[in-house]
Specification:
Subcellular location: Cell membrane
Keywords: Cell membrane, Membrane, Transmembrane, Transmembrane helix
Membrane topology: Multi-pass membrane protein
Helix content: 40-55%
Radius of gyration: 29 Å
Shape: elongated
Transmembrane segments: 18-41, 285-307, 343-364, 376-399
Oligomer: single chain
Protein name: ABC transport system permease protein
Number of strands: 15
Structural class: alpha+beta
Number of helices: 13
Length: 415
């Protein structure tokens, strides 16, 4: 029976090219947007190079200080000393990395200026992340203890700074902000959307201008806690929070007196969304309203339009419905037939959308809009797209099917 319904759906498609074009255009366009959007969200939040262990990592991005009445607030990254004392000393994590976010710097090749983003890190940064070293190796604890002026650079910076790309950059000198460093390694760069790992040049935290000697609570540093496995993540959160809770209150840091100290350690998605929602109830309402509006525009409006198109298309088949009902076809059978037809059409639109999405993602990756972009249609993205196809087919098919299947035999034959 299912095969017969699919054959009927195919013949209906060929019978009305105009309706077919409108239906497939609406479905494929909507699903293409959803697939590309899903792929971007996977790129933004998934465990990808060089943060392939996000699923078992916790991120400490900011410290929030408040007074007892919660009328004053101070927030931002922490000092290297604070994270060393309260995060680096944790027992449960496999490793803990402390680093800064990237900051801007300049390098010059002759009279040409190269705008750079630089980052200061500890040696564990290279163990917590999964950078691919194209040349050389990372700096280690011994290098940092010796105070060596070394740097790890990306392949993109190498192309901009050195003339002969065939020669290894390891051991060569680079000058950044009038300071000289020896290149110790070259890595494949991280996309700019991964702010915990993105930079053009990486320095040991003991390099000049790192401000790692600051003794207060606040500073320029953040941390990544890497668990041995996913099951240890809640244990690490509890252990870290226990240490934060033992800090004597009230306290004073950089002239700001506070009674409440919040230092969340969160998975990447929670950390990212928490930064948005921390803006208060108004920003939280705006954020969720925007998401609801986008979903309605992407899924709701096309579904409503397709319902109207399907009603018109099915109305032309009223006489067919009347004849089938006259021969005893129950409402359930008619509804099931129209749903199968609509889902079949939706999957054809989904196949077209899959091809379009693949082309668009290739263009985005090659365009350079996002440095080192690696958008893909992977298994999770594809499964989400298939689910959307099913939901879309049901949304745009159930209502017309119910409406038309309830026509009386006389009404159907008159149409």
């Amino acid at each position: 029976m299912l095969a017969n319904y699919i054959k009927i759906a195919w013949k209906v498609l060929l019978r009305h090219p105009f309706y077919t074009f409108i239906t497939l255009f609406g479905i494929s366009l909507t699903l293409t947007v959803l697939m590309v959007l899903t792929s971007f969200l996977d790129h933004l939040f998934g465990s990808h190079y060089p943060e392939t262990s996000r699923y078992r990592s916790l991120y400490i991005q900011q410290m929030i200080q408040r007074d007892s009445a919660r009328t004053s607030r101070n927030g931002g990254p922490m000092s290297f000393k604070f994270l060393t004392q309260y995060a680096k000393s944790l027992k449960t994590p496999e490793r803990v990395s402390i680093s800064t976010f990237y900051s801007t710097s300049n390098a010059y090749v002759g009279s040409r200026r190269i705008k750079l983003n630089t980052k200061f890190t500890d040696a564990d940064f290279w163990q917590v992340t999964d950078f691919e070293f194209l040349e050389g190796k990372p700096y280690n604890e011994q290098t940092i203890a010796g105070g060596d002026h070394v740097a790890v650079i990306t392949d993109d910076f190498k192309r901009q700074y050195f003339d002969n790309l065939e020669e290894s950059a390891v051991g060569k000198d680079i000058e950044i902000e009038n300071l000289h460093y020896k290149v110790i390694g070259v890595v494949k760069g991280s996309p700019v959307t991964r702010i915990f790992t993105y930079a053009d040049v990486y320095f040991p935290y003991t390099a000049p201008k790192s401000n790692y000697q600051r003794t207060g609570f606040r500073g320029d540093y953040v941390a990544i806690l890497l668990a041995k496995n996913k099951q240890d993540v809640p244990v690490i959160r509890t252990e870290f929070q226990d240490r934060i809770n033992r800090i004597p209150m009230p306290a004073v840091s950089d002239g700001f007196k506070f009674d409440i100290l919040e230092v969340p350690s969160e998975p990447y998605v929670e950390n990212f969304i928490g930064m948005i929602l921390d803006g208060g109830a108004g920003l939280r309402m705006l954020f969720f309203s925007l998401i609801a509006f986008i979903l309605f525009m992407l899924l709701g409006l096309p579904a409503i339009n397709l319902v109207n198109v399907n009603v018109s298309r099915i109305w032309e088949r009223a006489s067919e419905i009347g004849i089938r009902k006259a021969f005893g076809a129950p409402v359930r059978t008619l509804v099931w037939q129209f749903i199968v037809e609509n889902v079949f059409i939706t999957f054809i639109g989904g196949a077209i959308a899959l091809i379009l999405s693949f082309i668009i993602i290739k263009l985005i990756n090659a365009s350079g809009w996002i440095a080192y972009a690696d958008l893909t249609i992977n298994l999770s993205v594809f499964l989400v797209s298939v689910l959307v196809c099913l939901v879309f087919g049901l949304l745009s098919g159930v209502l017309p099917a119910l409406r038309m299947s309830k026509l009386s035999i006389a009404e159907a034959l008159k149409s």
